[in-house]
# Entry
Amino acid sequence: MNILLLGSGGRECAIAWKLAQSAKCDKLYIAPGNAGTTAYGENVAIKVNEFDKIAAFVEEHQIEMLVVGPEDPLVNGVYDYFEGSSVKVIGPSKAAAQLEGSKDFCKRFMQRNGVPSARYQSFTAAEYDEACRFLETLQAPYVLKADGLAAGKGVLILPTLDEAKHELKEMLGGMFGAASATVVIEEFMSGIECSVFVLTDGEHYKILPVAKDYKRIGEGDTGLNTGGMGNCSPVPFADDEFMQKVEERIVRPTIEGLKKEGLVYHGFIFLGLIRMDRDIQCYHAGDPMVIE
# Structure
């Protein structure tokens, strides 16, 4: 089959490398691609949100599968754009993509479906005083998250209450543009993180190998969060017992929640998890909880 992969980052380079190895792949195109992807397919000068141009290319080159790498076109509805056409889109619908596109939506989804996550509240600029009062109910450090997409950089972890209140005002004032018009304030979860990836057709699912990424920009895990400075797999602490809890408490309720709420999801679900090193709420040390 002919495949079109959307994206231009390191993620898309890795996906292109693997897709090109498949005996089912006759021709691989990457839009727009990067210097690395030229080793595995043909780059196409189309941006990921130019849906009309993508559709014309799909028709002209008889594309049978469209693999979407970045979050942005998914949040903007690329799946819905091609719904009813012959091309198979690997990615969630616009409604389901809110799990990534809105942290507030994601937190509410987890609450409704019993997926373990930290206590939180969401606030806009008009609710700044109320947000400060909520911060005062929490213990340091303080976690502030831009509600919308911020390229992996919209999360601040602050050591003091004064810093948290200051940065909250900056975020609500446009630090991350429209992405931080709403800010999610979360209770801090202490532990070690890992990433679980699930491939689903909306009914069945397959849990893929677990990875651990390193987000902080500085040496020794210091500085601001980024989209990722490096990662490794497998993850030693994600043993059979831990992964059984992940499947039973997180993966299955998520898939069931998507079905129950009518959210069409054909693609990869990213679960950013933490293995707790202390008790919090009704959860215990060693338990997995969802960060995002």
The first strand starts at residue 2 and ends at 7. The chain has a mean pLDDT of 95.
